[in-house]
Amino acid sequence: MTMRDPCDGLEVYRVGGAVRDELLGWPVKDTDWVVVGATPQDMQRRGFRPVGRDFPVFLHPQSQEEYALARTERKSGHGYTGFIVHASPEVTLEEDLARRDLTINAMARSADGRLIDPFDGLADLEARLLRHVSPAFIEDPLRVLRTARFVARYSGLGFRVAADTRELMAQLVSSGEVAHLVAERVWTEAEKALGEPHPAAFFHELAQCRALNELMPELVPLLEEGLACMSVLPDVGEEQARWRWARLVEVLDREAREQLSKRLKLPRAWCELAEQVACTRHLVAESVVGEVEVMRWLNAIDAWRRGERVAPLLALVRLSEPSLADRLAAGWQAALKVAPRDLVAEGFKGAELGEELARRRLQAISVAIQA
Ligand code: CTP
C-alpha cells in the first residue's frame, strides 16, 4: 500500500531562510513551509503534529519539517512576546509574507517552482541590502539582533543594512523596546552571531543603532580597537563561538566581565572559558614568567582537576609566544609527574599533603621551565 503524501491537495510554499539561502547559493539549513487555506484540524487529520505554542505550526509526519499556517501578527505589548496572532484559512500568502522582518526573508517558492516576491526581496538580495518589509518592523525588537546577525553572516558577500532600516533599528532602541528583550533572547542571537563568518560585524552593527549600549555596554569601548583578536584562535573545532566570545571579553576587567555575563545569563561553560582565557592573557603579559606565575596560572584555571583545559590554552599562547608556550608545556608536564599518591605513601595527609603537593609541583615547574 502506498502512503498518501500528507501535503497532497494542500497549498504549501517554501518560505523564509530556505528560499533566501538557495538564491544566494548559501547552504540551506532547514526548510520552513507556509500553508494557505487550511485549518489546524485539516493539518492534524493529515497526520501533521502540532508543536506551536504561540501560533499554529505543525511537523510533517515524515520529514519533520515545520509547516505553519499563514498568519498575521499585531503588536500587543512590550518585547518579543507581545503579539496577537491571527491564523485562519482566509489569510493569504502575501499577508503572511508582509509580517516578516526583511525583504530577503519575505519570499516564497510555490510547489511548481514559482518565486513569490511581493516586497522585491530578490532585487535587495542582488543589491546586497538588508531592508525591512514594512514599518511593522518596529513591532519586534528582536529584529534588531536578527538583522545584525545577518550582517555577521553575509557581510562577506557584500551585504549591508539599508539606511532607512538602520533608522528603524535606532528607533527600536530609543523607544526602549530593545531594553525589554529578555536575556535568553539576546543571548540566543549573540551566540548564533558568534558562529557566523564575521562575528565582529554583529557588534559593530549593534553599536551603530546603540543597541550595544543597552544590551552589552561593557563592549562599547572595545570597538574602537577593532575586534580582531576574536579571529585569532587556536583550532578549537566546535567550540569556536565560545572561544571567540572569550577572546572578545578577555580585555575587560573581571568585574565588567562578570556583570556582562550576569546580565546576559551566560551559560557557565562560557563564563569559565572567558575567565581562563583572561587569566592566560595576564600570564602572557607578565614581564617575567617564573614558576610562581606558572603555578598561579595553573591554579587559576583549575588545571589539577580540569587537565583538559591546559592544551587549548597552551595552543592560544603558542599563537603569539611560542617559546613561552614551550616552557609552560614543560612546566605542566613536570608538575603532573608529582603524584599525590606518592606523598600519601610517604605519610602526608590533610592540610600538610596539600602544602607539600604545592611545594613539589612548584619545584618541578621551576626545574622544567629553566631547562
Ligand atoms: N521571522 C521574522 N521575524 C522574526 C523571526 C522570524 O520575520 N523575529 C521570519 C523571517 O521571514 C524568517 C522566517 O521567519 O526568514 C524564519 O525564521 P528563522 O527560521 O528564525 O530564520 P531564518 O530566516 O530561516 O534564518 P536562519 O538561517 O538563521 O534560520
From TrEMBL:
Query: Which InterPro entries does the record associate with it?
Result: CCA_bact (IPR012006), NT_sf (IPR043519), PolA_pol_head_dom (IPR002646), PolyA_RNA-bd (IPR032828), tRNA_CCA-adding_enzyme (IPR050124)
RNA-binding among keywords = yes
Boundaries of every tRNA nucleotidyltransferase/poly(A) polymerase RNA and SrmB- binding domain copy? 158-219
**Domain Poly A polymerase head spans what residues?**
13-131
What does this protein need as cofactor? Mg(2+)
Mention one GO biological process in which this protein takes part, according to its record: tRNA 3'-terminal CCA addition
Sample GO molecular function, one term: ATP binding
Q: Which UniProt keywords apply?
A: ATP-binding, Magnesium, Metal-binding, Nucleotide-binding, Nucleotidyltransferase, RNA repair, RNA-binding, Transferase, tRNA processing
Name the SUPFAM superfamilies for this protein.
Nucleotidyltransferase, Poly A polymerase C-terminal region-like
The family assignment reads: Belongs to the tRNA nucleotidyltransferase/poly(A) polymerase family.
Indicate what this protein is called per its UniProt record: CCA tRNA nucleotidyltransferase
